[in-house]
Amino acid sequence: MDIQDLFHSCKLGDLHRVQYLVEVKEVEVDVRDKWDSTPLYYACLCGHRDIVEFLLKKGAKCEANTFDGERCLYGALTDDIRNLLKSFHVISKRTIRRDLFEEFLRKLLESKQYSDVVFSVHDEEIHAHRCILSARCLFFAHMFKTKWHDRTRIELNHANMLPGAFKAVLQFLYTGHMEVPMDLVDSCVKLARQCQLPQLVTEVEDRLKKTLSWESSKPGVRVTTLVLSPENSKEALQRDLAQLAHWAMPENLTSWVIGELPFEPETMPSTYPDVCFSVSNNHFKCHKTFFCARSDYFKAIIEDHFGETEFNGSLPVVYLHDVTVDVFVRILTYMYSDSCDLHPDLVIDVLVTADMYLLPGLKRLCGVAMATYLDVSNVVSMIQTSRLFGLVRLESQCAEFIANNLSKIIAQQEFKQLVLEDASQVKGREETDSIDVIDEIRFYISNFVQTYSEMEEANDKLRLIDDLLEELDVEG
């Protein structure tokens, strides 16, 4: 429903609603409808410059010489919007990325950080990580166990092996996305077949067909870069990398992970761990790649030897004393897949640990999970928790929940105390000052009213708030 609302708001030009859906509801800005169109395309087509600018600032994809970029430029209703697209810095390079997990993996591929294998493709060196390639591709898993066993440098000098095509396929394996020059598309398809990636072959061929068809219908337009973003790419990426977390766990804990493995036990690929975490005498064989690159806390204890580290064979062992096994399993799964199972009876413990381990993304996931079990009895304490851990979105969702259930909550002593605490934070009160929680609640009561009956209901709620403030003898 939120996705359709975003498309509708972009067509109508409702900037306020678009901002709410993207910033509070966190609807993906590059979502596509059944016509393969994005919110940015409709905003351009309908001439809503303010929405176009907002979506671009939020990282909407519109690279020059790509299908999406040229389509937005061609369909822009006004020259002003067309000039904005051309001048905006993400038109040539996408520098704002909302998906931090994809950004982490992209940087990992582009850098040499924690790399344990180097491919030399016609003398061009490409650094990679065996654990990721093995988890994402059966071909690489097999080659690392056989022909490339124990090799840290692999020469690929076949005449049909082009460095640009090889890097594009690795980009897909790391991030689930691909950006490749049109003149390398055929080479990418051949390489994807060689690597036994039939789904990638299908996705590339379908996108190429659609791009060429659109290009031929628009004289003078030329697409030079094929951008591939399959609909379920992130889910597939998360599923594959989550197996690394599964394989990192001791055998007595693997039953905790729900889901079928894509490998039979006898064909399970090697995972090439380089660090071991000991939690309550359970040893987790992990990868510095994921822990050090995603958390400054783990980078400090692993690289700077901040804490007790021993060696178990060839692996350094880091002892973690301030986390339970069940919480660490969630930390582990998040590190590899950017997701984890969060039960109501465990989420607060995970939130506290995520805060200690400097994992803002996991804190955000905890906030998302906590929002699913909001009720009239816990919403006030949830606001206090959201403020303590900086969960802005959860705080907004709590305010929205209160606005929708005001009559059931406004008389609670806990709520009244919250209002008084917020009122006491206002120093040197001016006429424009307002109480934070009251201001947020009023926003959700008033800003999405569309019918006369909704207006009457909103006015009734606003009167309840005024009566409460009068009762508490505060101005808000």
Automatic annotation (TrEMBL):
InterPro entries per the UniProt record, alphabetical: ABTB1, Ankyrin_rpt, Ankyrin_rpt-contain_sf, BTB/POZ_dom, SKP1/BTB/POZ_sf
SUPFAM superfamilies cross-referenced by the UniProt entry = Ankyrin repeat, POZ domain
Spans of repeat ANK: 35-67
Q: What is this protein called?
A: BTB domain-containing protein
Q: Which GO terms describe its cellular component?
A: cytoplasm; ubiquitin ligase complex
Task: Identify the residues that the record assigns to the BTB domain, covering every copy.
Answer: 115-182, 273-344
Top-rank taxon: Eukaryota
Keyword Transmembrane attributed: no
